[in-house]
Write a structure and sequence with these properties.
This protein is mainly α. The chain has helices spanning 2-9, 21-32, 39-79. InterPro entries: PBX_PBC_dom.
Length: 80
């Protein structure tokens, strides 16, 4: 549950697969306005978050393709 909430808040997941994009954008803007010594940490965080988003969407796409294949398989199997 906590992971789901984090993914939604960071804009990785959600109803439109963009979830809390505004929340993530606001958090990034707030982080960018922080002290310069934390800029590198925030930059690393945003890079890792971007990587997580990319992997999440790739895996979600694989999942959706597999579901579609299974549905077709079962529908065609039942028609025989």
């Amino acid at each position: 549950m906590r992971l789901d909430n984090m993914l939604i808040a960071e804009g990785v997941a959600g109803p439109e697969k963009a979830g809390g994009a505004n929340v993530a954008a606001n958090a990034a803007a707030a982080a960018a306005s922080g002290p310069p010594e934390h800029a590198i940490e925030h930059s690393d965080y945003r890079a890792k978050l971007s990587q997580i988003r990319q992997i999440y969407h790739q895996e979600l796409e694989k999942y959706e393709q597999m579901i579609e294949k299974l549905c077709v398989y079962f529908v065609l199997g039942l028609e025989r």
